[in-house]
Write a structure and sequence with these properties.
7 strands, binds coenzyme A, single chain, Aminopeptidase, about 30% strand, alpha+beta
């Protein structure tokens, strides 16, 4: 399993990834975003950043964040169904946190369903704490959302630059 992860690379999402990411989104979420939502995020939304994990030419996980001044807010994180429980979620979430720090974020927030214990465990293990509850946040089940916050980000990596753009072909 460790070897498998060693072969995985985290990189910025490009327009070429939209279809693969959309398939992961549909598989993972009851109320999925559309392909156009992702295209908007990549091409129009200046505060949005998305990462993917690629393994043997296949996108196996993705994660996104909105960064406004010192605050980063996670939009979505998902791992391909057959790849769950093998460390990809931790890999991409850690990478997303570091990326947000590199881009100037000082703390990072997210919403998670009250019944999504797997994701809550992951976030707690990375330093997130439950800050508040958003009542009946999810339309499909009426579940509450936990608002979780992590304010202990690793320092920005020295010399960080964004070389890759979403226009990459
Ligand atoms: C949540 C999700 C991203 C986690 O990704 P993953 O690759 O399965 O998780 P990892 O293998 O990296 O495990 C990371 C941690 O998650 C927790 N976790 C993973 N699988 C778990 C399980 N079956 N039961 C309880 N906790 C679990 C553990 O804390 C684990 O750390 P550990 O391995 O040190 O114990 C993935 O399950 C997913 O895509 N879920 C559907 C979409 C979703 O819920 N996204 C989050 C929305 S807020």
């Amino acid at each position: 399993m460790k070897n498998e992860l060693d072969k995985a690379a985290v990189r910025r999402m490009t327009l070429k990834d939209v279809q693969d990411v959309y398939l992961l989104e549909v598989e993972a979420f009851v109320l999925p975003w559309s392909e156009n939502d992702f295209i908007y995020e990549l091409t129009q939304n200046k505060v949005a950043r998305y990462l993917v994990v690629e393994e043997a030419g296949e996108v196996v996980a993705f994660a996104g964040v909105h960064i406004i001044w010192e605050q980063a807010h996670v939009t979505n994180i998902a791992v391909k169904k057959q790849k769950k429980g093998r460390g990809y979620g931790r890999l991409i979430t850690k990478a997303l946190i570091q990326y947000a720090s590199n881009l100037g974020a000082e703390y990072i927030t997210l919403e998670v369903r009250e019944n999504n214990l797997i994701a809550q465990n992951l976030y707690k293990s990375l330093g997130f704490i439950k800050a508040s509850v958003r009542k009946r946040y999810y339309d499909d089940t009426g579940e509450d959302a936990w608002l979780m916050v992590c304010d202990k980000l690793s320092p920005a990596e020295p010399g960080f630059t964004e070389t890759e753009t979403i226009a990459e072909t």
